[in-house]
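Duplicate of earlier report; FAD-dependent monooxygenase input re-posted below.
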Amino acid sequence: MQLEDFRSFVPLQGKTYFVDQWHKEGCLLIGDAAHCSSPLGAVGLSLGVESAVVAACIISECIRNQDVEFKKLDTLTQVRSSDIMLVHRMQKMLTLLLINRPSLFKKGVLGVMPMASRTVFSKLAK
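Output:
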């Protein structure tokens, strides 16, 4: 099959959001389901993986402590929110710059975004 036009493609919306509660009654939201980032900087996947790693550590601890209600998962949002909110703020700022002063992006401002997604893994030890 050969592509003849782009009518079948749907443009993705670049919306950013953060869900306040990531788990409830046996359901856990991870990645874009919990905290969607805009495509700017291409960091959404990294943020999702980092959240999944933190969640896995918390779940593992709950299992070791025989916490069948996984009450400690309440801390997941708190542990991850500052890093994710920082990225969201940077994306918002960069989006405004892109719209108002696009020449700044040609000088390398966009290169900062991958660094913003890196978090300190010392939080995993908590």
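The chain has one domain: 17-125.

Merging into the original ticket.
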